Amino acid sequence: MPEELETALTEWATVASTVGTNGGPAEQSLVRRRGRQLAGRLAEVLGRPVEFTDPVTGRTEQVWGRATGPLPRLAPEPATPWATGLTVSAFFAVLIAIADIMLSRAFADAFGLLWIPANVLVAFGLAPSLWLVRRTPFWRWPAFGAAAGLVVAWVCLLAGLLG
After folding, report:
1. CA-to-CA distance for 110 and 105, rounded, in angstroms?
2. What are the tens digits of pLDDT across the range 107-136?
3. Of 156, 140, 139, which Cα lies nearest the Cα of 98?
4. String of b and e for 18-40 (b: at least 16 CB within 10 Å)?
5. CA distance 130 to 16
């Protein structure tokens, strides 16, 4: 067996065990496609059919070489709901901006300029959570809105200090 094919099979096995049932549909489909391709190359090298076991479903099939039929196509990515998403983002931006401004002003009335470090703590406390959900299909919109709301609140609060 060629060393390049052996290396590719080893790398694919590592990825397949990682993706397995934990990966998303696109990753699972990609692992299946690559596994069938490598099984076809192996069958050609050996000159006989090989068995390919799908790492996601566990289903076994005979692969006779590269000409085993068309490979399944990847499912298209779902369309991004921009209108709904931006509406949700705008709602959360306004909500977070108003809440942050009101809390900071109340804190400033009680403790003076200590609202600045308190607001920094709020921003840095929210940052990890907002960063983690930025790629989750629905929750990215509230995260983007909350981040924008914090920026708007900071601009308004700092402008209030100047004027």
Report:
1. 9
2. 999 999 999 999 999 999 999 999 999 888
3. 156
4. ebeeebeeeebbebbebbbbbbb
5. 30
Maximum CA pair distance of the chain? 82
**What are the φ/ψ torsions at residue 43 (nearest 5 degrees)?**
-60, -40
Identify the CA nearest to 39 among candidates 81, 67, 17.
67
d(C-alpha 130, C-alpha 151), whole Å: 13
Contact indicator for 89, 133 with CB cutoff of 8 Å: no
The whole-angstrom separation of Cα 114 and Cα 66 is 69
Q: Cβ neighbours of residue 12 under 8 Å, at least 6 residues apart?
A: 31, 34, 35, 38
What is residue 28's predicted lDDT score, i.e. its pLDDT?
81
Tokens matching residue 20: 């397995």
Report domain extents, the chain: 3-63, 82-162
